[in-house]
# Entry
Amino acid sequence: MTEARRRYLIETAIEMNCCSINQGTSGNLSIRHESGMLITPSGMAYSTLAPDDIVFVDGNGEHHGPRKPSSEWRIHYDIYQARTDAGAILHAHPTDCAALACLNKPIPAFHYMVAVAGGRDIRCAPYATFGTQALSNHVLEALKDRKACLMAHHGLTCFEKDLPRVLALAVEVEHLATVYGRLLAIGEVKLLTDIEMDIVLKKFGNYGLQD
Ligand SMILES: [Zn+2]
# Structure
């Protein structure tokens, strides 16, 4: 059972590279497991991973197995501890999310699909050095009532119930970042009203749920 979950994590990590969400080994992916999580290891190409390379981090933050967890394991760990709705977490540096994040720009309600992340905007967490507790704290704050946030001068973190959903969310947020970036280059960006976004958020409450 655990091996199947590890294989599924590797397959989704490879898919993350195929759909331009991630480049090389900069991103990382995890799923909630027992009291902790299973997470991709630090600095290894996904295509070379075997199930045993996936790292189990227990509920005390201790890692087990031959590999070290991704350097951003704290972000994943802290989200699972704080958010019972998180079943899978993706962190990466998709090009257009990273571009906006390097301008410290959140994604405002320029398109109704911004609500896919759970609110009227997608915040940008303040900068802190990669792999630090300070960065994890900033990300957790930016994810308040949200499932995705940008990270200043860094990239994207998002979570969902499971691996297919978290990959789909990352693809959607990257698309929104691409369109928003183009709008910024053209000129003044028109935003939807809070009232309209609240209507959309209410509709999203049961949108696309085919469980
Ligand atoms: Zn990163």
Residues 149 and 177 are 11 Å apart (CA to CA).
